[in-house]
Amino acid sequence: MTVFLWGVLPYAAFALLIAGLVWRHRYDRFGWTTRSSQVYESKLLNIASPVFHYGILFVLVGHLVGLFVPESWTDALGVSEHAYHLLSLYGGTAAGVLAVAGILMLIYRRRTNAPVFRATTANDKVMYVFLLAAIVLGMVAKLAHSSGTGYDYRHTIAPWSRSLFTLQPKTELMVGVPVLYQVHAVVGMLLIALVPYTRLVHMFSAPVQYLTRPYVVYRSRDPRQLGPRPDRRGWERAGS
């Protein structure tokens, strides 16, 4: 089971991610969207959506730093283990709370607004379950092992994560990891595999081209210079 969870499942999730992205881009390009329901309701969406997106962005950045920045790098910058633990604990918890609050508001909006609820698919429901579970499990795991210097995942989970990219996964590092962290990692990998088949696929459609495209120039027209508009054939003035 150890080899399957930490040596096979990560690559299976990545393979499903890539295959799903290729399939969606090739056969469902018009479905590559968030399927926005803003036309049905926008007041709550304008609050919930930014809260969720800022929260999940901070969560992703925190995971990238925690898993892929070695401890030697933070030591070289003068960041002590205690300071890193406090930043990870309070910063990660705040980001998680922000993301969860946004998700709950989005779920409430979908459940209480009839048109939005009718536009909700089975994939959306599965996505919300895995997304909420991954974030909550991460916070619970962190808070459950927060005493003292906390659980130092940079000696186990982080090296295991980096070893996946060398195609030599160090599965033995995950044997002694607390169960909550293990469940959080498994749910996270399943969520990665689900991304292409849900509305989360839009995260791969960042408008990078806007950085290099030419400006669109808008000019106002002076109505005094337009003159009268000629009548078109086949149309008559109202009341004539």
TrEMBL record:
Keywords: Cell membrane, Electron transport, Heme, Iron, Membrane, Metal-binding, Nitrate assimilation, Oxidoreductase, Transmembrane, Transmembrane helix, Transport
Transmembrane segments: 6-23, 44-69, 89-108, 128-145, 179-197
Keyword Transport in annotation: yes
Listed SUPFAM superfamilies: Respiratory nitrate reductase 1 gamma chain
Cell location: Cell membrane
Keyword Magnesium carried by entry: no
Domain of life: Bacteria
Membrane topology: Multi-pass membrane protein
Classification via InterPro entries: Heme-iron_electron_transfer (IPR051936), NarG-like_domain (IPR023234), NarG-like_sf (IPR036197), Nitrate_red_gam (IPR003816)
Residues of the NarG-like domain: 3-221
Main localization, broad class: membrane
PANTHER family xref list: NITRATE REDUCTASE PRIVATE CHAPERONE, REDOX ENZYME MATURATION PROTEIN REMP FAMILY, RESPIRATORY NITRATE REDUCTASE 1 GAMMA CHAIN
The protein's name in its UniProt record: Respiratory nitrate reductase subunit gamma
Organism: Streptomyces plicatus
